[in-house]
Specification:
The chain has about 220 residues and is mainly α. The chain is built from 8 helices and no strands. α1 runs antiparallel to α2 and α4 runs antiparallel to α5. The mean pLDDT is about 90.
């Protein structure tokens, strides 16, 4: 499991659970504050006439008033904190749903570079590179490409996002397998070459959809070539 996303899972669960706990404590504290208010109301309705008892009554009323205010303040504070925690949990979950895991991002970047290198090998062959060397290089690169294509979308992502990413990695894997199996045939047969160039374009189109959906900075990837 991707470490970054598994940490987000724990963060989401922890924040949400703690937020719910604090919210319930806040409600309970407000309920106790209301109970103190009712108790104070009853006390004030029974004001003693005896001076000595009245002083004791005043102390009890004052203490009850302080308890009521303290419970009210703490209850409101607990509810505010619980709302903030719930918002943080919501953000963590939103990030999971709309972001690539580090493993997905690494595989996407790797396939991006490998496709570029494969296209470079095809261009080199057109410009006179030997078929033996080009075939070997394409097979090596296509094996790596097929490996990158075995990546699967992080399960915490939105369902539509998972489908998009898995579809792309499946295209990458199939392209790598097919290029590896027919590397020399592709170079020797113009019709085969045209077919595989079209397959590469399909993968690149799919790649652009993933880039757009997850706001991948392609310029940054190009600078690392």
């Amino acid at each position: 499991m991707d470490l970054n996303m598994s940490m987000l899972d724990l963060t989401f669960i922890g924040l949400l659970s703690f937020g719910i706990l604090l919210f319930l404590l806040g409600i309970l504290t407000l309920f106790l504050s209301a109970a103190s208010r009712r108790q104070l109301k009853k006390l004030k309705a029974r004001r003693p006439k005896n001076k000595k008892k009245r002083k004791q009554w005043q102390r009890i009323c004052k203490k009850t008033e302080q308890t009521k205010k303290k419970r009210m303040r703490n209850g409101i504070l607990l509810i505010i904190v619980s709302i903030l925690l719930g918002g943080s949990a919501g953000y963590a979950r939103h990030y999971q749903l709309t972001s690539l895991s580090s493993s997905n991002a690494a595989a996407l970047a790797k396939s991006y570079y490998l496709i570029d290198e494969i296209e470079g090998q095809l261009d080199s062959y057109k410009n006179g590179a030997s078929i033996e060397k080009t075939t070997k290089n394409i097979r090596d690169l296509s094996q790596q490409l097929a490996g990158a294509g075995t990546e699967t979308a992080y399960v915490g992502m939105a369902v539509d996002g998972q489908k998009l990413v898995n579809r792309h990695f499946n295209l990458v894997k199939n392209l790598g397998i097919n290029l590896n199996a027919k590397a020399r045939e592709i170079l020797e047969n113009q019709e085969e070459l045209t077919t595989y160039l079209a397959d590469i374009d399909k993968v690149k189109t799919s790649q652009q959809k993933v880039f757009k959906e997850y706001q991948v900075n392609e310029s940054a990837l190009q600078q690392k070539k």
